[in-house]
Specification:
Elements: E1 4-6, E2 12-14, H1 18-104, H2 108-129
Antiparallel strand pairs: 1-2
Subcellular location: Membrane
Organism: Triparma retinervis
Keywords: Coiled coil, Membrane, Transmembrane, Transmembrane helix, Transport
Length: about 130
């Protein structure tokens, strides 16, 4: 059986055989499968990149919020440091004045007597209450 036949214009043309059709169909199917596979991979990559982009945007937003919170806390710490410095100065002034008062009132002797008498009063109070 010949694989050639005459066309309308009298020239010979190749008549496709079953094997030729089968090979072309296989090649077309293989190419189409490869193209579909590549398109699917591109879609998957696009989806992954979208998810990654969203994650990066969220991370950027969180870092901005953390930065803002740190700035606020730094201001609060600076203010607290200033207040502590002021309180330390006030305590130093009060301590100095207390020391001067103790010296003017007779020194540690009077102070010790006041503390001792206060302890005796407290002791007597407890003895009266619990007897």
């Amino acid at each position: 059986m010949s694989s050639h036949s005459r066309g309308k214009n009298g020239k010979y043309r190749k008549v496709p055989t079953y094997e030729d059709d089968y090979d072309n169909d296989d090649n077309d199917d293989f190419i189409m499968d490869a193209v579909r596979s590549q398109q699917q991979m591109l879609q998957d990559q696009d989806e992954s990149l979208d998810i990654l982009g969203q994650g990066a945007a969220r991370l950027g937003q969180i870092s901005l919020e953390i930065s803002s919170e740190l700035q606020t806390q730094n201001k609060m710490l600076d203010e607290m440091g200033d207040e502590l410095d002021s309180a330390e100065l006030n305590l130093a002034v009060v301590t100095k004045k207390t020391q001067e008062l103790i010296k003017k009132s007779g020194g540690c002797g009077y102070f010790s007597a006041i503390v001792g008498l206060s302890l005796v009063v407290i002791l007597l109070f407890f003895l009266i209450v619990y007897t």
